[in-house]
Specification:
By secondary structure, the chain is of the alpha/beta class. The protein folds into 3 domains: 1-45, no CATH class; 83-342, Aspartate Aminotransferase, domain 2 (3-Layer(aba) Sandwich); 345-447, Alpha-Beta Complex (Aspartate Aminotransferase, domain 1). It has 15 helices and 15 strands. The strands form 3 sheets. Strands 4-10-9-8-7-5-6 form a 7-stranded mixed beta sheet, sandwiched between helices. The longest helix is centred in the C-terminal third of the chain and has 22 residues, at 345-366.
């Protein structure tokens, strides 16, 4: 069966009689209804799917009051059902909900607030409904700016669901990348050894791979257009090494491409006080794409760009998106950003993240099979390996996330082998939730030890 490493690795096997037999009668009925109404493409997570009916803060709740600590979702980043977002949407919906072709203060006030979080070179913003649309738009802008069509991404990248963006998302499924795309290995700081690569540093090796990929594309008739990178390499396995993006972006620009930083997963303070993943690397992108956490559950996303990069597209193509930048999503986004800023959530993410990272490192020292702990802020990758090696232990990683699910804590797997535990605590976490998360992980690691 073809399909995404990420999606399939985390999936409930809805066509397995044995899997269905293990469900409650109510959940089995819901699964059958999903298959009938939604078709075969949709997936559920975990061997025992999570049935949720309510949420609050850092928790989801099942129909019988079951409590699940959310350490996975980055949509409700400031906490589920956040009252500030609920009230902003209610109030705006009660007054006006319309598109951006009418003069309104809301879209401009929020644009000022949002752009102030970026380096001054990134001075213009366009709004969309989703991160997929933002990346789709970014590719169009890049092509208009450069005149090229060749795009370089990482080997397990996920950038969205439109036709254009699926073509630059190697992990998205069985359709495959487009002929204008080359995928390079992610900068795996755990397994990379300079002595195996002529003494080159990880950053040099990654930049050389980017150069080779663009050169190959050009030789096939696809001149350089964009280097598109998730700035924490989320789907590749979470690699926060800050040395790697600067040299790669420099190579892309030298060859005539632009650098697009995909901040859909790491953005809005999830990586800590730097606020944006690219900022940790000391590099200013040409285009930045935003998505999921921006509206805390309300579909709203954006593309931020240098005005010089946007100029050709903007002058030649009159862009319009009915709901992108409309009144209600913008009100939600403004509420989210205001909460993050007023409550200092990015700074708190750094402090709490250091606490979690310290506990995870203690676990790594004591637990055979926990090969590596990587992360920054409230975004972690925990590598599960065969003890004493760097060999991925995918089966145990999947056992761990399902054991944690049964303990009421939700995480997932990522990376090319499904051997990386992808852990994303919400910005609403306190020390109580942090300790509960690490405690459940420690117990799951012990329970699955071989």
């Amino acid at each position: 069966m073809s399909g995404s490493t990420i999606i399939e690795g985390n999936s409930f096997r809805q066509d397995s009689p044995e899997a269905l037999a293990g469900l409650s009668p109510e959940d089995r009925t819901l699964v059958e209804r999903r298959k009938k109404n939604l078709g075969p493409s949709y997936r559920l997570f975990y061997r025992n799917p999570v049935h949720v009916v309510d949420s609050s803060g850092s928790y989801l709740y099942g129909p019988e009051g079951e409590e699940f600590l959310d350490a996975y979702n980055n949509v409700a980043s400031i906490g589920h059902a956040h009252p500030a977002v609920v009230e902003a949407v209610r109030e705006q919906m009660s007054r006006l909900s319309t598109h951006s072709r009418y003069l309104q203060d809301g879209i401009l006030d929020f644009s000022d607030q949002l752009l102030a979080t970026f380096p001054e070179e990134l001075d213009q913003v366009m709004f969309t409904n989703s991160g997929s649309e933002a990346n789709d738009l970014a590719l169009r802008v890049a092509a208009a700016c450069t005149g090229g069509t060749g795009v370089v991404v990482t080997s397990e990248a996920y950038h969205g669901t439109t036709a254009a963006v699926s073509a630059v998302s190697p992990s998205a499924g069985g359709e495959g990348t487009g002929p204008h795309v080359r995928a390079v290995p992610a900068p795996d700081s755990f397994r990379y050894r300079p002595e195996d690569h002529d003494g080159r540093s990880l950053a040099e090796w990654f930049a050389d791979n980017v150069r080779a990929a663009f050169t190959d594309l050009a030789s096939e008739g696809y001149p350089p257009s964009a280097l598109l990178v998730d700035t924490i390499f989320s789907s590749d396995g979470v690699f926060p090494d800050t040395s790697v993006l600067g040299p790669a972006a420099e190579v892309a620009r030298e060859l005539g491409a632009v650098f697009i930083a995909d901040e859909v997963q790491p953005g809005f303070g999830r990586v800590g006080r730097d606020f944006w993943g690219f900022a940790r690397h000391g590099v200013v992108p040409d285009i930045v794409t935003l998505g999921k956490p921006m509206g805390n559950g309300v579909p709203v996303a954006a593309m931020v760009a240098r005005s010089g990069v946007l100029a050709t597209f903007g002058s030649d193509i009159p862009y319009f998106n009915t709901f992108g930048g409309s009144s209600v999503p913008v009100a939600a986004a403004r509420a989210v950003l205001t909460v993050i800023q007023k409550e200092g959530l990015a700074e708190k993410a750094s402090v709490l993240g250091d606490r979690i990272a310290g506990q995870l490192q203690e676990l790594r020292q004591s637990a055979p099979g926990v090969g590596d702990v990587r992360g920054t802020g409230l975004f972690f990758g925990v590598e599960i390996v065969e003890p004493g090696t760097t060999t991925p232990d995918s089966a145990r990683a999947l056992d761990i996330i399902n054991t944690m699910r049964d303990m009421g804590v939700l995480v997932s797997v990522a990376g090319p082998y499904n051997s990386t535990l992808k852990i994303r605590p919400l910005l609403s976490y306190t020390a109580v939730e942090a300790d509960k998360l690490v405690g459940a992980l420690s117990a799951a690691v012990s329970a699955t030890g071989r």
